[in-house]
Amino acid sequence: MTLDAAWAVDWTRRSAASVAEHRDELVELDRQIGDGDHGENLSRGFRAVVAKLDALDPPPATVGDVLRIVATTLMSTVGGAAGPLYGTAYLRASKSGTATELGPDGVVALLEAALDGIVTRGKATVGEKTMVDAWTAAVAAAVDAADHGAPPSQVLAAAARGAQEGARSTVPLVATKGRASYLGERSAGHLDPGARSSELILAAAAEAAAD
Ligand code: ADP
Ligand code: MG
Ligand code: MG
Questions:
Q1: Second label for 162, Cα 20 to 30 Å away, from 39, 112, 130, 150?
Q2: Domain DhaL: where (predicted)?
Q3: Closest among 139, 140, 119 to 130, alpha carbons compared
């Protein structure tokens, strides 16, 4: 489909559904190396986002308008580390999504902006066992796909696969940022919850573009 405001709404709805579906898994992942609130916080946040989108009349006109609502709602409802991190990611992405329709380069720019927001906010680099690992691999895969002439839906599909690999790569790592870093070496051997939720969100973006 065309990557316009309707796609962004569909992406958001699919993200909310996926996060809700994987709520217990995210809770369990965060229980292993954090405080166990990631699944609940994020599913509550996305529920609020969907309620906000449902109540909007007229509906948002651009991808950027949709993502700004996601950003502000997640910031005010999620809390913890993930609230400000995802909030900043969506806010930066919203500023890059001002065109009525995203082409391959627009998708890359949006993903780069989101990653940039997460890094600006959390100061993590690749390999610190955070959501940055998922987003960095997603951006790299998206850039590569766009460079090879892929259409926007395929750029997003590549990003989703990259995010999956990036999330998997966090398993053996020792966390050096966020709450999991308190565990030191004991954080190794666990999937990072924020990398996993990032993987779900990017899979939702690709699924919305595929239909
Ligand atoms: P909290 O740790 O405050 O309970 P959450 O459980 O909602 O927050 O989110 C934890 C996730 O946030 C981690 O799995 C990790 O992916 C991400 N995270 C934490 N700190 C950072 C950081 N400085 N930079 C990027 N991501 C981070
Ligand atoms: Mg937590
Ligand atoms: Mg917490």
A1: 39
A2: 6-207
A3: 119
